[in-house]
Amino acid sequence: MTLTVNHLPVPAKRFLLSLLPVVLLAAPLPGIAQQSPAIDELPLEDIQTFAEVFERIKRAYVEEVDDRTLLRNAMRGMLSELDPHSAYLDSEEYQSLRESTQGEFGGIGIEVGMENGQLTVVTPIDDTPASRAGLQPRDLIISIEGTPTEGMSLQEAVNLMRGEPGTDIKLMLLRSGDDAPREVTLTREIVRTESVKHDLLEPGYGYLRISQFQARTAQQTQEALERMSRDHPLEGLVLDLRNNPGGVLQAAVDVADIFLDEGLIVYTEGRLSDSQMEFSATPSTPAADVPLVILINSGSASAAEIVAGALQDQRRGVVMGTDSFGKGSVQQVMPLGNGEGLKLTTALYFTPNGRSIQAQGIEPDVEVVRGRLEVAESRREIRETDLEGHLRSLEAPRDRQEVAQRLRDDYQLGEALNLLKALNVVDRRRR
């Protein structure tokens, strides 16, 4: 193997020669030795070009740039061109990622990603400034505090949006169908992500909301099911995965296992041997027989799509709503020796029937778009409760009007409850 460097300037020669021991002596990663090109097949001409570009920047760029910055930028560029989820993490970014996975940080409560080079809302997190301000999946973030997001890295955007609780931040948003962007001002707060909420919509009909998948999500899900069925066995359950950005893979598997007593839940495929995994249901299944409707939308991503896809393929429930996000790739966060890290896409998710989630998403069995049910005033009927001096019910009206209003506000949830009731009617007639 011959590499000519005589035509390069002296600093570029030194830089290139400093790279050679790494190029020549680097060992292939475990698990991909058979798939890696031989060392003598490396594109040495491109390495020469890289060194030449490095030298010209050092010599001619309008401002002086140190070697460390150039190398870090080169590594960032190398990863950013692979896919939107691979990234080089400096020590601050690596620590920030660790904090976010622990479920508590100062910010506005929003999951963002890059779509066609534009900073895009994946989903707002429940009960956070972002969700209360009405941010929706697919909203484009045009600027942050007046700084345009075009050309901004994902981590730069995240760093700008996080900050001290109590401080304000201005975002310029553009929503599909709007003529012009609009500005919203949010107040940062400590974002604590409780992943599971539950309620009874009606006696026997439960509502289980999972906002993201954390280490304790499966345990909290099981506890919620036990509480909802304490006084009356569940006749149906709405599992709400809308605007759920994903999270811990094992948590998603464990939640799906609560509703499945056998069969494959999900499998992954990648180049490394340890990235090829299969997860199957166990016979111990607390909620194997509860009729189930799973709500998804364009903000349902990653681990949420794993659960929806498994329950759909296993014919365990009816998936309702709109197409999910389509984030079906697996990332590993690899610590580096200098306190920094590497987030690298290493595999793809597949549903039990072999469907790739990546860029496809989960298509609902029943499509129901987001909306609000309005009752025309001219058709409003007078009922006993409208008459002056009517006798009160002996039972406390346990927020029936509140639940009715909730179902009017959330059309998808109302349709899910109606479908559960219809399934029970059909089941009783079959008996």
From TrEMBL:
SUPFAM superfamilies: ClpP/crotonase, PDZ domain-like. Residues 94-162 form the PDZ domain. GO terms for biological process: proteolysis; signal transduction. Gene3D superfamilies: 2-enoyl-CoA Hydratase, Chain A, domain 1, 2.30.42.10, 3.30.750.44. PROSITE patterns: PDZ. Keywords: Hydrolase, Protease, Serine protease, Signal. Residues 1-26 form the signal peptide. GO terms for cellular component: outer membrane-bounded periplasmic space. Pfam families: CtpB_N-like, PDZ_6, Peptidase_S41. GO terms for molecular function: endopeptidase activity; serine-type peptidase activity. InterPro entries: ClpP/crotonase-like_dom_sf, CtpA/B_N, PDZ, PDZ_6, PDZ_sf, Peptidase_S41A, Tail-specific_protease. PANTHER family: CARBOXY-TERMINAL PROCESSING PROTEASE CTPA, TAIL-SPECIFIC PROTEASE. Belongs to the peptidase S41A family. This is S41 family peptidase. It comes from Vreelandella rituensis.
